[in-house]
């Protein structure tokens, strides 16, 4: 069994392993910046599993920001029947791509 962790980033949980690249809601920073996440909820390595209550003390996940970008456009349409009123709008969520460097 490989080593992986469940971390909390911006109130969302992600299962990560070393070398993974994940997309999360926008974080402050620019490409190349290194961050540390200390909200590790679960840690599994080989046959050993550690569950946090709610987080694991002294456990850190090192990550690097790969890029800041916008996600796919999500379009929506609203209309009112018999009133000839239509409204079309869309939005693109700002995201950050992270590379997992090390799980401690």
From TrEMBL:
Keywords: Ribonucleoprotein, Ribosomal protein, RNA-binding, rRNA-binding. One of its GO terms (cellular component) is cytoplasm. One of its GO terms (molecular function) is structural constituent of ribosome. The keyword RNA-binding applies. It comes from the Bacteria. InterPro entries: bL21-like, bL21-like_sf, Ribosomal_bL21. PROSITE patterns: S4. One of its GO terms (biological process) is translation. The keyword Ribonucleoprotein applies. Pfam families: Ribosomal_L21p. Coiled coil: none annotated. This protein binds to 23S rRNA in the presence of protein L20. Part of the 50S ribosomal subunit. Contacts protein L20. Belongs to the bacterial ribosomal protein bL21 family. This is Large ribosomal subunit protein bL21. It comes from Candidatus Dojkabacteria bacterium. The lineage of its organism: Bacteria, Candidatus Dojkabacteria. The gene is rplU.
């Amino acid at each position: 069994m490989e080593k992986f962790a469940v971390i909390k980033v911006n109130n969302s949980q992600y299962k990560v392993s070393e070398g993974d690249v994940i997309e999360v809601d926008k974080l402050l920073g620019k490409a190349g910046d290194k961050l540390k996440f200390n909200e590790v909820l679960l840690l599994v390595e080989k046959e050993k599993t550690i569950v946090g209550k709610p987080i694991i003390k002294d456990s850190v996940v090192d990550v690097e920001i790969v890029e800041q970008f916008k996600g796919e456009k999500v379009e929506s349409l609203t209309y009112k029947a018999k009133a000839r009123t239509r409204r079309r709008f869309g939005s693109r969520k700002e995201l950050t791509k992270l590379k997992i460097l090390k799980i401690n």
